[in-house]
Amino acid sequence: MVRPVPLSLLVWVVPAWAFALPKLGGLRDLMTGRGTDQGAVLEKRGVNKTIWTSSFVYQGDSFFDHWDFWNSPDPTNGLVQYVDRDTAFRERLVYVTPDGRANMHVDSWTNLTLDEVTSKSKLRPSVRIHSKAKYNHGLFLLDVAEAPFGCGTWPAYWMSGFYWPSDGEIDIIENVHSSRSNQVAWHTSPGCNLVTPGNFSGVAGSTTCDATINYNTGCGIVDPSVASFGPTFNEKGGGIYAMKWDEISIDVWFFYRSAIPEDILEGTPNPASWRLPSASLSNLGCDIDRYFMNQMLIFDITLCGDWAGTSYSQVGCPGTCEERVTDPSNFVNATWSINSIKVYNKTIFNTSYLDGGGMRSAFPHLTVMLFVNIWVVIFYGITVM
Ligand SMILES: *[C@@H]1O[C@H](CO)[C@@H](O)[C@H](O)[C@H]1NC(C)=O
Ligand SMILES: *[C@@H]1O[C@H](CO)[C@@H](O)[C@H](O)[C@H]1NC(C)=O
Ligand SMILES: *[C@@H]1O[C@H](CO)[C@@H](O)[C@H](O)[C@H]1NC(C)=O
Ligand SMILES: *[C@@H]1O[C@H](CO)[C@@H](O)[C@H](O)[C@H]1NC(C)=O
Ligand SMILES: *[C@@H]1O[C@H](CO)[C@@H](O)[C@H](O)[C@H]1NC(C)=O
Ligand SMILES: *[C@@H]1O[C@H](CO)[C@@H](O)[C@H](O)[C@H]1NC(C)=O
C-alpha cells in the first residue's frame, strides 16, 4: 500500500533539497562538459584554465603598515614637500577613517608665501608612498572612493621598479587639474611599443613606450569614460580600477561603483569575463616580461611640476601654478580615499590531468546528496511509524 507523504516530512525534505541543489553545479557541469568557477576543472581536456587566487589585501587599520614613505624631493619637480611617516600621521596627512578608508591628503591648512614657493625654500606638504612588496604579474583591484583633483593637482596611482626605466613603469590612474578622463601609460627602456588598434576601448596617444625619448611621454591610452577621473568620478563614489598583468598583456579597466562585476564583489574575479579593458599593452608590440619587473605600488599627489605646471596656463586655471600653491584652501579636494587594494595571483590548471578529476570535484556534492537522501528515508520511517 502506498501511503500519502505526510506534510511533516515535506517540512524536512524541501529545505534539504533547496540546500543541496545549488551545490550540484559541479555535477551538472560534469555531465554537460561546461565549466563554472569551481567547475573550472571540468573544462575541455588539455586546455589551460586560469583562476585568480587572493594573495594579499591592503585595507583598513593596517593599510599604511605595508608602505614606505618617500620623503625625498619630488623627481617630477612638483612644488610639494613629501613627508616621512611620523610627520604624515602627526600632521594628519594620512589616517584611516572610522569606517576603514585609508586617506592621503595634501596639506590644506598651511599658508605659504609666493617667495617660499618660487625659491622652493618651503613647499606644500604632501604624501608619496611605495609598497614594501614588489610584484611580478598579478591582478590588482583598487577600490577607490575618492581621487585627488583640482587646478595645479597631479595625482597618480602607479607602479614602478627600483631601476628606472629598465624595470618599467605602469601608470594606472593619472591626470592633472580637473580632467575628467583617466590616462593609462607605460614607460620602459627602448624597444617596447603599443600596438594599435588593440584590444582596448580607450583612445591611444603616443605608441612608443621608450622613456628615454619624447621627454619621457611614454605610450598611453585615455579612458573613454568622462567620469574616470576628477569631480564626477568622486561624485559617483569612485569605483574599481582593475589592472591585470601577465605575460600576454597589461590591461586596465575602470568600473563605476554602480557597475562593478558580480565576480569582483564575490571575491572570485575573472578578468576574462569582463568587457574590453579601457587600456591594454599587448605582448605583440612589447615583450612584457622583459620590460616590466619587480614593481612596487605607488600613490602620490604632487602639485605643478613637469606636467601640471607646464599645462597650467592652458586649462583655464586662475593665476599661476605657484600662486595656486600658496593658498591651502585650493587643495581641499587633493585627497586619495582608498577602501582597499586586493591582489590576486594567477593559477593555471592543466586540465589534461583531470581524467577522473571530474568525479573528484563532484564527490563533495554527491556526498551531500547521499546525506540528504539518508535523512529523507529516516524521517519518512519515523513519520509513518
Ligand atoms: C599551457 O601552458 C603551458 C605553459 O604554462 C604551455 O606550454 C602550453 O602550451 C599551454 N597549453 C595550452 C593548451 O594552452
Ligand atoms: C603567486 O604564485 C606563484 C606560483 O604559485 C608563487 O611563486 C608566488 O609567490 C605567488 N605570489 C604571490 C604574491 O602570492
Ligand atoms: C592664511 O591666509 C588667509 C588669507 O590670507 C588668512 O585669512 C589666514 O588667517 C591665514 N592663516 C594663517 C594660519 O596664517
Ligand atoms: C586581441 O585579442 C585577440 C583574441 O585573443 C588576439 O588574437 C589578438 O592578437 C589581440 N590583439 C592584440 C593587439 O593584442
Ligand atoms: C572641491 O570640490 C567641490 C565638489 O566638486 C567643488 O565644488 C569645489 O569647488 C572644489 N574646490 C576646489 C578648491 O577645487
Ligand atoms: C599537461 O599535462 C599533459 C598530460 O600529463 C602533459 O603532456 C603536458 O605537457 C602538460 N602541460 C603542461 C603545460 O604542464
Automatic annotation (TrEMBL):
Which keywords belong to this entry?
A: Hydrolase, Membrane, Signal, Transmembrane, Transmembrane helix
Transmembrane ranges, per UniProt, are 362-382
Q: Which CDD domains match?
A: GH16_fungal_Lam16A_glucanase
Q: Which GO terms describe its molecular function?
A: hydrolase activity, hydrolyzing O-glycosyl compounds
What PROSITE patterns does the annotation carry? GH16_2
UniProt keyword annotation of Nucleotide-binding present? no
Q: Which SUPFAM superfamilies match?
A: Concanavalin A-like lectins/glucanases
Q: Which residues form the GH16 domain?
A: 67-316
Instruction: Give the GO biological process terms.
Output: glucan catabolic process
Keyword Phosphoprotein tagged: no
Q: Which residues form the signal peptide?
A: 1-18
PANTHER family given for it? GLYCOSIDASE C21B10.07-RELATED (PTHR10963:SF24), GLYCOSYL HYDROLASE-RELATED (PTHR10963)
Name assigned to this protein: Glycoside hydrolase family 16 protein
Q: Which organism is it from?
A: Serendipita vermifera MAFF 305830
